[in-house]
Amino acid sequence: MKNYIPILKRTQLFAGVSEDEIALMLSCLDARMHTYKKGEYVFHQGEHLHHITVLVEGELHIQRDDYWGNRAIVNRIAVGEMFGEAYIAPQSGALLNDVVAIEDSTVIFFDVKRIITVCSSACRFHSMVVQNLFFAISEKNKKLLQKLGHISKRTTREKLISYLSEEAKRNNSASFVIPFNRQQLADFLSVDRSAMSNELCKMRDEGLLEFEKNAFKLM
Amino acid sequence: MKNYIPILKRTQLFAGVSEDEIALMLSCLDARMHTYKKGEYVFHQGEHLHHITVLVEGELHIQRDDYWGNRAIVNRIAVGEMFGEAYIAPQSGALLNDVVAIEDSTVIFFDVKRIITVCSSACRFHSMVVQNLFFAISEKNKKLLQKLGHISKRTTREKLISYLSEEAKRNNSASFVIPFNRQQLADFLSVDRSAMSNELCKMRDEGLLEFEKNAFKLM
DNA sequence: ACCTTTCCGTTGTAAAAACAACCGACTTGT
DNA sequence: ACAAGTCGGTTGTTTTTACAACGGAAAGGT
Question: Domain limits of chain A?
Fold first, then answer.
């Protein structure tokens, strides 16, 4: 687990905390590590969570399959990001989604109670972690609102424009690379892949944008 | 402001804090009250927030209008609920939505910095408020995920089934009353009102459900 | 080098949604 | 009591999407 301390240091959760302090806090927060093969499930719909999960290697998708097999990628977790903050309240019910490793992945679990219950003087940086978690959840909240902004658009074209505009803005450039292939982007925006592909090409033909694979350029 | 202390006591934010303690904390948290007439904007898209807003009277809608006038109700704030938790992080940018009073409303603003910076011993219950805010944001996070679950369904019927099923579950009954009229529900689910109305009636004719105004019964 | 798999664009068809327009019932204000 | 406005259902048309199926290019493994 110590190998991953440099990665933890760069996470939102431990921002501003030194590696030495993190090492000390690992036991204080009851940290536990686990690895998953590509395709393995980290969590299943219906489970009850009591931990914050930080991804230190690989990539996770939070996804939901409905009764008829339509898959929606609710979110994508990259190295350094975490999962489970939506379920830290005691009254939170069961997990609503599946969490799947789409690459070989390593995660570290932190006991929620240990985090939000400020412990003895042993953890001088504990309050900073609490504040970091605050900001992190708040940010994730905001991201969900943004995604909602995209998906609530009525047509595939509008969804694409909404998403791509934001990516351009986020990268401060009309050219950028998105972290999804076509199928994943379609799932993310909750539309049909072929229809979306079609719409993308129409937009390209109309001169709205250019793309090659995952690299886009807005005009 | 003191008139609303009983209401604050029943909010998530002040759960477990006595009215006397709340009264003491109001100044500690730099609480400020403001009233709005029906239709007035509490916040406009593009503003920067530094406060948590608690609604103590009336009703608010968080909504977004796109370039072409389509309105999406991102969320609905009832008395006792709060807004602004998605923007408490210092790196949070501008507000992405409008917040509108749809009834004459009264809100109380709390300075974010004052909340998350634990103050001196004067506020014995401060840490409880911090923990409450944690759970509240976490819960809101979860609600957004649930709404995403509805909206990411492909068809109007599926969205309706998803939403209504959840309402039934939440009320522990096949019969329940929803807090939206038809237009608001359509906006919430990001679909066309008439198409949705049509679909609802089809589902009724197929025996899937019954309804009268906002009262629904699933079969 | 060959086979397999994945990815992405393309096409045609059927289904569904958006849109516009209208009407009757019910509220609300005066 | 009347006028104006809101609300919800209905219908027909146009636009958009979902779905299924195919093929070529690229990637990956043996």
Answer: 2-140, 153-218
CA distance A86 to A78: 17
Residue B160, classed as helix, strand or coil, is helix
In sequence order, what are the residues at sequence separation of 6 or more whose Cβ sits closer than 8 angstroms to the Cβ of residue B45? B64, B94, B95, B96, B97, B98
With a 7 Å cutoff on the CB, does A70 touch strand D?
Answer: yes
- Tell me what pLDDT residue A103 has: 82
Facing residue for B137 by CB, picked from A72, A141, A152: A141
| Residue A29 · residue A110 · CB < 8 Å | yes
CATH number at A153-218: 1.10.10.10
Domain B2-140 is of which CATH architecture?
Sandwich (2.60)
The tens digit of pLDDT for each residue in A15-25 reads: 989 999 899 88
Q: How far apart are CA A90 and CA A83, in angstroms?
A: 16
Q: Which residues of A touch B148 (CB under 8 A)?
A: 72, 74, 144, 147-148, 151
The reply to whether B2-140 and B153-218 are identical in fold is: no
Which of chain A's residues 144-203 bind strand C, using a 7 Å CB cutoff?
154-155, 181-183, 194, 197-198, 200-201
pLDDT tens figures, B117-172 = 765 544 567 778 888 888 989 988 888 888 888 998 888 988 998 898 888 877 88
Give residue B52's identity as a one-letter amino acid code. I
Q: Is the dihedral of CA B114, B118, B124, B129 positive or negative?
A: positive
If residue B34 lies in a helix (H) or strand (E), which one and from where to where? strand B32-36
The answer to whether strand D lies under 7 Å from the CB of residue B181 is yes
User: Which residue has tokens 């807005």?
Assistant: A218
CB neighbourhood size of B35 (10 A): 13
Q: Give the residue ranges of DSSP H helices in B65-108.
A: none
pLDDT tens column, A119-163: 554 456 777 888 888 898 998 888 888 888 899 888 898 899 889
Return the SS3 of B193: helix
